[in-house]
Amino acid sequence: MTNETTRRGFLRTVGTGAAATAAVSALGAEAGAAATAPVKILGISTSLRKGKTTAAAVQRALDAAKAVAPDRIEVELIDLAGLRIPVDTLVGLTLPPGERDDFPAIAVKLGAPQVAGIIVGTPVYFANMTSLCKAFLERLMVFRKKDFALAKKVGGVLAVGGGRNGGGELTIQSVQAALMAQEMIVVGDGRPTCHFGPVLWSQNDSIEKDEVGLKATDNLGRNVAEVVLRMTPPRS
Prior knowledge:
Layout: H1 3-14, H2 18-27, H3 31-34, E1 39-45, H4 53-68, E2 73-79, H5 103-110, E3 115-123, H6 131-139, H7 141-145, E4 154-161, H8 168-180, E5 185-186, E6 199-201, H9 211-231
Parallel strand pairs: 1-2, 1-3, 3-4, 4-5, 4-6
């Protein structure tokens, strides 16, 4: 298969337009370009509500990751709330006229050479992830088809629910399974909590009183960062 054929197939999957083209360019960038930049960890909030508890939890994990090595790690929160991530293209369907697709712009960020880690956060709905989270994970198929472009990146997952025992760990494991299918290196929250990942208890639309969950969130961010740095030793 020629490079041009592969490129056209990727464009059909991820979407069309300048953003999709940029995603291809990012995936094909020379390794030398990444050598001059710090490693980056992206946080993906998949709540349907922008800037709420899930976004706050993911940002806290990112802050903990950044604190491990402020001079070597950059972080960025991507809040998917309000974005359109249709899955029609996965089965070859054409989007209806006027239907917006925001995934190509996200793919550009995910495909950047310096991205070495991804932390996904989702609310818990009926002991599982949100529909927005599922759509996001399904659209990651483009990276799997593009020669497993997310392989060996470090992945972490956290969940936010209205109850401590509402299926948070099941939710985390479901997301982790999708990341493992990308050949990512999936880690949980590190010591001393050291479980699948943080399950934060949202009380009155706030996670600030959940000391157990917040501690585990800090541990997740730190653990993702430490594994990322082990995978990418300092450049001379």
